[in-house]
Design a protein that fits this description.
Length: about 475
C-alpha cells in the first residue's frame, strides 16, 4: 500500500508540484491517489491549460511499463484520461488568434458548401474520361484524381518533375494552376511569385496524357522583371492567377491574369497556347479594376460561358495570412461575377456597373459563422446529368486559418434571369466524413483494456503488448 503526497491543485502555479507528483508516480510504483479523484481531475485541467499534457501522458505510460498489473491498469486508465484531455484541450488555431467581435458572418443567405474532402488552395478541376482531376498550388503542382467531386481523391502525379524552368523565387511551389484541354492536348498554366510583389511570371506546361508526361515550356508572361516585362500591361499588372477561355465564335484563345495593382487583364494567345499572340504588342484588355482605394483586392479570375453570356468570375478581398490578423467582416475573400456577350467585355454586374468601375455581383461569401473567405474559384460546365458547378476553396472557422487549412467546397449553380446563384444541396454537418483514425484508436484502446483485464497472470513481456497498443492509440488519436 502506498500513499500519495498531498499537493495543492487549486492554482495554475502548481505545475512544479505537478511535476513532482509525476516523478513520484514514476519512482514510487505509480500510485496516483485514486482516493482523491477531484484532485486528479484538477491536475488534468491544469496540465491542459499549461499545454503539458504530452509530458503527463508519456510519464504515466513509461512508469506503467515496470509496474505490477493492478498499478499498471490504473496508470493506463489515467493515461487514457489524460490523452482524452489532450485532444479536447489542444487549442485550435482559432483560439490562438485574436480577432475582434463580429468577424465571421453568420448570414444564411448563402448555402453551405458540398465538401470536397481535400485540402486545396486555389483548386482547379478538369473533367476527363468520367473522372475529375484536381490541380492545386504546391510543390511541382500536385495532381489528384477522383470519380466524385466529394472524393476520395488519389494523388496521381505532378505537373513538374522539379523546379520550374522560370528563373524566379519560389519556383519549386507554383501557385494557382489552371489546366485546360485544347486540340487533343492538356495545358497547365501556373504562377511563380511571392506574397506582396509584382516580380512574377505565368508559365505553361503541356502533355498528351493528363496524369503524366508533362513538359515545362517556361514563362509565358513576366511582370517587373523578365522578357517583355517592359511591355504594357505587364508594367502595371501582376502575372499571377491565370485562367483560360476561347471565343465561342472564332475559337481564339485568351488568357486572363492579374491581382491587386491595376486589376485583371486579358491577352490573346497563340494557337499553340505557348506564347502570347503578337507578344511585343499584345491586344490586352483591362477587365476588372477598382478605380478608388488602395489596395485593390481583385484577383483569381475565371471565365465561363453559358449561352449567350461569358461570365467573368473573380475573388475580391483578403485571401490569406489571417494569422497576422482578421479584416473587418466583409473584407475577406468573396466570389463575384460580371457578364458580357462579348468575350472581350465590357463586363457588367446586375446593376449595370462595369467591373472596371468596381462592379461585381457577390455569388458566394462567408456564411453561417463557419464558412470563411471563399475564393480561388472555377466553374465546371454542365453535362448530361449535372448543372454548372462552382468550386472554390474556403476556410472552416472550426479548423484553422493557415494556407494549408483551405478546403475544397462546391455548389451547383442555378441561373436567375441569366445571373448565377449558388444552390444548396446537402446538410453541411452530414458531409463530414468519419474520423477513421479515431475509430481505429478506439478499437486499439478496447483491445488494450481487454488484454489487461484478462484473468491470467501477466508477465513483464505480456504487459508490454497493451502498452504498445496504447502508444499506437495515442499516435492515431493525436495525428488522425
Amino acid at each position: 500500500m502506498c500513499t500519495a503526497p498531498r499537493h495543492d491543485f487549486s492554482t495554475q502555479e502548481c505545475w512544479g508540484e505537478t511535476l513532482a507528483l509525476l516523478r513520484w508516480v514514476s519512482e514510487d510504483r505509480g500510485c496516483l491517489s485514486v482516493r482523491e479523484p477531484r484532485k486528479a481531475i484538477k491536475l488534468w485541467g491544469i496540465s491542459s491549460r499549461q499545454r503539458q499534457l504530452p509530458r503527463v501522458f508519456w510519464r504515466l505510460l513509461i512508469s506503467s511499463s515496470r509496474l505490477r498489473a493492478t498499478a499498471m491498469l490504473r496508470n493506463y486508465i489515467i493515461s487514457l484520461a489524460w490523452l482524452l484531455g489532450m485532444v479536447q484541450a489542444a487549442p485550435s488555431e482559432n483560439s490562438k488568434l485574436h480577432h475582434p467581435p463580429n468577424v465571421f458572418s453568420k448570414t444564411d443567405k448563402y448555402p453551405f458548401p458540398n465538401q470536397g474532402h481535400i485540402h486545396a488552395h486555389d483548386p482547379n478541376i478538369v473533367q476527363h474520361d468520367n473522372k475529375f482531376y484536381l490541380f492545386k498550388g504546391g510543390i511541382q503542382v500536385p495532381i489528384f484524381k477522383s470519380s466524385s467531386l466529394s472524393g476520395p481523391w488519389t494523388k496521381v502525379g505532378t505537373v513538374l518533375d522539379g523546379p520550374s524552368v522560370i528563373d524566379k523565387q519560389n519556383r519549386t511551389r507554383p501557385w494557382a494552376p489552371t489546366t485546360v484541354e485544347w486540340k487533343g492536348k492538356f495545358y497547365c498554366f501556373y504562377t511563380i511569385s511571392q506574397d506582396g510583389v509584382r516580380n512574377s511570371a505565368i508559365g505553361v506546361a503541356s502533355t498528351d496524357s493528363i496524369e503524366s508526361g508533362w513538359t515545362d515550356h517556361g514563362g509565358l508572361i513576366y511582370t517587373e522583371k523578365g522578357p517583355l516585362a517592359h511591355v504594357w500591361p505587364y508594367t502595371v499588372s501582376n502575372a499571377i492567377d491565370a485562367s483560360f477561355i476561347a471565343d465561342q465564335q472564332t475559337g481564339q484563345p485568351y488568357l486572363q491574369f492579374g491581382s491587386y495593382w491595376h486589376g485583371i487583364f486579358q491577352v490573346p494567345l497563340a494557337d499553340d497556347l505557348l506564347s502570347v499572340k503578337n507578344p511585343e504588342h499584345p491586344a490586352a484588355k483591362n477587365l476588372v479594376h477598382l478605380p478608388d482605394g488602395n489596395p485593390k483586392p481583385d484577383e483569381g479570375s475565371f471565365m465561363s460561358y453559358k449561352e449567350p453570356y461569358y461570365y467573368l468570375w473573380f475573388s475580391h478581398g483578403k485571401c490569406c495570412q489571417f494569422n497576422k490578423g482578421f479584416p473587418t467582416m466583409g473584407q475577406e475573400y468573396s466570389i463575384r461575377v460580371g457578364r458580357s456577350k462579348d468575350v472581350r467585355g465590357p463586363f457588367v454586374d446586375k446593376q449595370g456597373k462595369e467591373l472596371t468601375e468596381g462592379g461585381g455581383n457577390t455569388v458566394y461569401d462567408s456564411n453561417h459563422g463557419i464558412v470563411y473567405a471563399p475564393g480561388g474559384l472555377g466553374v465546371l460546365p454542365a453535362n448530361t446529368t449535372d448543372p454548372d458547378v462552382l468550386y472554390y476553396h474556403y476556410l472552416n472557422t472550426s479548423v484553422g486559418f493557415s494556407h494549408g487549412d483551405a478546403l475544397l467546397g462546391w455548389n451547383y449553380l442555378d441561373y436567375e434571369d441569366g445571373w448565377p446563384v449558388a444552390r444548396g444541396t446537402e446538410n453541411f454537418a452530414a458531409t463530414v466524413r468519419p474520423n477513421y483514425s479515431f475509430i481505429v484508436a478506439a478499437i486499439l484502446c478496447m483491445c488494450c483494456l481487454a488484454l489487461i483485464l484478462l484473468p491470467v497472470r501477466f508477465t513483464g513481456q505480456r504487459l508490454m503488448l497493451p502498452f504498445i497498443l496504447l502508444v499506437a492509440t495515442g499516435f492515431l488519436w493525436l495525428h488522425g
